[in-house]
Amino acid sequence: IRHPVSHGVAFLFIGLCAPAKAQTHYPDVPEPMVFDMMRPLGAKRGEMEANTLATTSLSGADRSVQWAPEVEYALADGFAIEGELPFEDGRLVELKLGLQAALGTFNGGRSAHGVQYLGIYDRDARHYRSSFAYMVAHRYNDRWSSVSMAGLGNVSLSGGRGRNAAIVNHSLFYDSTDGQILGLELNYRGGADGYMLAMPQIHQRLADKVNVQAGIGAERPHGGVFRPKAGIRLIREF
Length: 238
Known about the structure:
By secondary structure, the protein is mostly beta strands. Helix content is 5%, strand content 58%.
């Protein structure tokens, strides 16, 4: 699929990866449930994870289930790749390929930052789009941490309707007990197809390398009303 602007963003993304190799210690910060990262920042080469997120509205006319199996793999220290297959009920609707690079730590090793690129092919519209986001993770103390992301969806130099809409995520986490994390995730996407989402969530370790994230929150599409929404993500690390 040819898309010069998206290819340019991808090449810029790859060029930003080099500084991560010099870093060895990154803060331990959870990943958001809905706005998924491609392994934590500072992931080590060879780390791999398979997971599936499923979400659905609990009211309104649209009760379809959006679910997406994906595989994440760290190709090198601080550099990860992801392949994802989003479904709507039983229908495959998109193909996704993601890249993520850690750019290093600061604030005495308590903070880290990186970038994320996501290429998306819509099978119905036969249209390719991409997004680009900058990420900052911070560990406040033994209990509290956060991840913040900001960037653009449907990246394009030409502008136009729906182009370069802002995407913002902020997630705050509290390590309540060993193996359990409580969190609040806030998502915003601009544009005509944008939305706002607030998703309280719990992350629970079920077994060695097996985790589940679950939450019930509320989502408001552009021009619509808030409706309750539920989500769950099952994770298996290798």
